[in-house]
Amino acid sequence: MVLRVTCAIVVDGARVLCTQRGSAMSLPGEWEFPGGKIEPGESAADCIVREIQEELNLAIRIVEQGPSAFYPYKPGSMLELMPFVAVCVGGRLHLREHAQACWCEVHALGELDWAQADLEIVAWWRENAGRIIDSLRK
Fold it and tell me: Which residues contact 127 (CB under 8 A, 6 or more apart)?
């Protein structure tokens, strides 16, 4: 079984939004790119837009989809984490589930205690941040 989950790399200049999982969530205290599970009949793109609105009160516009990362989830199942690079187009950040949020530049991402499933996405962002940030400035 594969659990399909989306995450958003929300870009603001050279920084990205990182969120710390709250005490009521699994893996409390670990950092992640925010997102959530795809609902039946929902596209991955629709899911990430909905999840960011619900969890953070932000409206986003997708810029690019990155490659999925796969991580063992439970015995006999895998987590497919699908990253979307996005920019904020409205709303005011309000944490509904997360303990805290911060805006990090690429060089500071290693200072956070990331959820294991997000590590491959963090590595992808490090490799592609310059290209994507440059394209957003044009």
Answer: none
Q: Which two tokens stand for residue 59?
A: 């409206």
* Residues 86, 48 contacting (CB under 8 angstroms): yes
**Distance of alpha carbon 33 from alpha carbon 122, whole angstroms:** 9
Which residues does 45 contact at the CB level (< 8 Å), separation at least 6? Answer: 62, 65, 84
| Cα atoms in the Cβ-side hemisphere of radius 13 Å centred on 51 | 25
User: Rounded CA gap, 134 and 116, in Å?
Assistant: 28
Q: How many other C-beta atoms can be found within 10 angstroms of the C-beta atom of residue 79?
A: 18
Interval 60-75: pLDDT, tens:
999 999 999 999 988 8
Lowest mean pLDDT: which of 4-8, 71-75, 114-118?
71-75
Q: What is the DSSP string of 48-109?
A: HHHHHHHHH-EEEEEEEE---EEEEEETTEEEEEEEEEEEEEEE----SS-SEEEEEEGGGG
